[in-house]
Amino acid sequence: MAEQVTAARLIGLDPATVPSTTAELDAYLASVRPTLGITPEAREGARFILLPPMRNDIRWLTPAVPAWAGLAATAFALQPRWARSMYGGGLGGVALGGIPGVTDWQATLAARGWRTALMALPESIRRGPHVAAAEQRLGLAAA
């Protein structure tokens, strides 16, 4: 939760006004959940995340599409069950209708698999120069 408080501070929120424990986050979500709903914009955003526009050479000549689809599906599956279910039925399963039959432990297992695979990549691929420059500007660079 500490990293979320830091993120809130970095975008200009008063850290005292954001949840700093999982209990506070649970209470906040419980308080806003009755007001949440899936809008056409939310569905369009989900479609965009699952099927982003890509140049044809990248789309057809690299593993970008299946890799991105798997990563996006995992991210979607990591939402709370109640949030996944809000998308109802529909085309695409993942972006529009939730992931039928996916359990929380399967989503967690998929996320751990992604982390293991991505952490096996060389740091020069995982962490571009823009990340180091941003960390330096924000005073977050490792000593």
TrEMBL record:
Q: Which InterPro entries match?
A: MPAB/Lcp_cat_dom (IPR018713)
Recorded hits in Pfam families, A to Z, give:
MPAB_Lcp_cat (PF09995)
Single GO molecular function:
oxidoreductase activity
Using the record's annotation, list all stretches that form the ER-bound oxygenase mpaB/mpaB'/Rubber oxygenase catalytic domain. 1-88
Give the organism the record lists: freshwater metagenome
Name-wise, this protein is: Unannotated protein
